[in-house]
Amino acid sequence: MTSRIANTCAGARSLRRSSRLGRLTLATLLTTVSAQACLAQSASPGSAIMLDTIVVEGAAAGVPAFVRDRFFATAGGATLLTAEDIPQSGNPTLAQALQNAPGVVVQEFFGGNDQPRVQIRGSGLQQNPVERGILVLRDGLPLNRADGSYIVGLANPQQAQSIEVYRGQAAHRLGATVLGGALNFVSPTGNSAPGTQVQVSGGSFGQVNLSGQTGYRGEGVDALIQGDFSRRDGYRVYNESQRASVSGNVGVALTENIKTRFFIGYTDLGFDVAGPLTKAGLRADPKQVHGGPRVVNGVAVDPGPNVLRDRPRRETKQFFVGNRTTAEFGPHLFDLGLGYTYTDDMFRFPISSGVRVTKGGDFTAVARYAYKPDQAAALPLFETTAQYVIGSAKRENYLNQGGTTGALFGESDLDASTLSLYAGANIPVWQSVTLSPAISYAHATRDNDDTFPFARRPTNAYNPASPYMLLPNGAVPAQDSSYKRSYDGWSPSLGLSWQPNANQIVFAALSHSFEPPTHDDLLATINGTPNSSPGRPNPGAPMLASAAFSTPALKAQTGTTLEGGWRGRQGDYSWDGVVYYSWIDNELLSLRDATGASLGAINADKTTHFGIELGLGAKIFDRLTGRLAYTYQNFRFDNDPTRGNNRIAGAPRHLINATLQYQATQAWMLQASLRWNPEKTPVDNMNTLYADPYALVDLRTEYRINESLTAFGEVSNVFDKTYAASTLIVDQARPDQAAFLPGTGRAFYAGLKARF
Questions:
Q1: Using one digit for the tens of pLDDT, what is the confidence trace for 444-490?
Q2: Over 80: is that where the pLDDT of 21 sits?
């Protein structure tokens, strides 16, 4: 849990004397901000390499006090989740791992190793699937491709020692060119996790998980290798998923001042896309899948994809290799990183988009420098980051022919690059007041060379009145989809923080953000229907000339954000609260019609994002602790000519995660959690269709059999609530539209974890 991390030195001494529950209690959400930097591959300068065991009074999980002080003093929002904060579960998902981080909204799509919608402050909210809006890092090196897109299913919390969350302008120093922020998944090392551990678990819906790791720590060198495998049949019809992943790292002390670490890994991910249901279908049977629109008296009703026929699925393989080297010379600290990823991604969409195959590699170079002449200061006096990502990919588009790969209708060579530069200072203007000016610059290129070799693009379709009856194939003129786009933007920021005492800080920050579009924004399939392929808006008209691709001339999304926060602890209570308001120009929206078919991306004129991110922790009684993570989001269009001041679709206004934990004995823990969305959420930008509110109760328990063996079990959704975990996001919905993605019903899981 987040509150495992110690706060002050005195607090840490008290925590060590207390029971496990006491440690959970007195640790604060504040320290989740301040403890980030020196875990093994934190994204912060100077914390990339740690080869010596560090035992520091006031440290938690090997985190020295000076690093906690640095992040405590930062004028921005951030959270650290350690491995102990991520519950041991028989159904490990990203949604579960991040549910206690305020300000991070994770909405599950299909319940397994899938593609949950992850958004921070609304950035990238409207993409289906979500592939833009946050910077995702592994050990400080980006998982994002050079165009800013990412595959969220590749983020693996099971192989993370900690997860660092940076919200808003706090992520600019990491090279982020997004409004939302960044997530960094930090791997364990042989130094931080020597020995061997194995975990086996499973439960409802055919869930099976196996994982293990072994670490070695020697003099000046350490190494670790880890792997995991998980699969499940799934809660719904056509809902299978599986993931196999292996990774390792080796750290070497080259000299007393220079240390380096090498990383390597491979992930193989596959899952069925069970798709949305109508609201009536969700209530009647959330386990079913949609069979496409029906024709009643010549009128199409229940618009949506035909999952039974089209069998949408995603299969992704990714290989990565990287290195980070840290050098420290007195007050000067250098952190250099190199990384390469190769991704092979097949996404079989419903017929309206076809089958998309993308294969390519991306190279990253990052350099960070910090200057800290006063070692007693919490923050470096000056720091700077330069990050350059360049990549290319071959993309092929095929017809979806009844769940198989049909004829080629599109072919592209995609190239992209993103350069991010950052410089910032932390200037003491009084004993307890710090001024933090910063500026970042980004230059991005997005080029597409349409290499489709034929003059006409093939199309296919099924009879809407008999959706398994194939109609004659067709073809449309092959309009050129090539483009060359370039984007430049400056993002200044100014932070001011006041620390009235050692346990509290108040801060405010004004910042600008700049977010260029991705290739998925710039190149979209269009003019498909639930019964016909792109370029065929009328299934019965196979030769009607129509474009199959849209290449909109999009502008970069920019925003100005004012935020303020107060975090601290007093006795047995802790708090971490941030309020922000963003004025956004040209927000990138990915639109879909009433059937869920793509309309391409647009720039909204002006929008506003207002939010509250609040974490609370308390020791209620000697053995009882409580924690609350609350996120408020009010995202709206600003006098839009079509949408007025409507709420932007897909953003729940309130999200509450509350946990009570009781330490029955030193070895036995009981926990109850509430996941509550108390207000309906708009499905469409016109605010005509809504997902209903819901409240879910989960129960967990852990029992430490001995020093080496722990048993755990859980019941999720105890009362078997039927609810929509997420929805498709469309511009104008119909009441009978298939747009609701059912959450998993009541489930039981159990497992064992052994350490040697």
A1: 999 999 999 999 999 999 999 999 999 999 999 999 999 999 999 99
A2: no
| Beta-carbon count within 10 A of 430 CB | 8
What is the C-alpha to C-alpha distance for residues 318 and 227, in angstroms, rounded to an integer?
14
| Predicted model pTM | 0.89
- State the Cα angle at 105 between 440 and 355, rounded to 5°: 85
Any idea how long the chain is?
756
Could you tell me the two tokens for 313?
């699925």
* Amino acid in position 701: T
Residue with tokens 């029992």: 703
CA 27, 33, 34, 38 dihedral sign is positive
CA distances from 553 to 414, 481, 518, 527, 602 (A): 16, 12, 12, 18, 9
Q: Are 392 and 399 in contact (CB under 8 A)?
A: no
Q: Is 158 exposed, middle or buried (0-12, 13-18, 19+ CB in 10 A)?
A: buried
Token pair in block for residue 375: 């070692």
8 A C-beta contact, residue 292 and residue 467:
yes
Residues 6+ apart with CB under 8 A from 690: 680, 681, 682, 683
What's the distance, Cα to Cα, between the start and end of the chain in Å? Answer: 23
Give the single-character DSSP code of 56.
Answer: -
Structure tokens of 578? 């941030």
Give, in degrees to the nearest 5, the angle at Cα 118 between 690 and 508.
100
| Tens digits of residue pLDDT in 670-692 | 999 999 999 999 999 999 999 99
d(CA 462, CA 464): 6
pLDDT band with cut points at 50, 70 and 90 for residue 25: very low
Q: Please count the other Cβ atoms lying within 10 Å of the Cβ belonging to residue 16.
A: 11
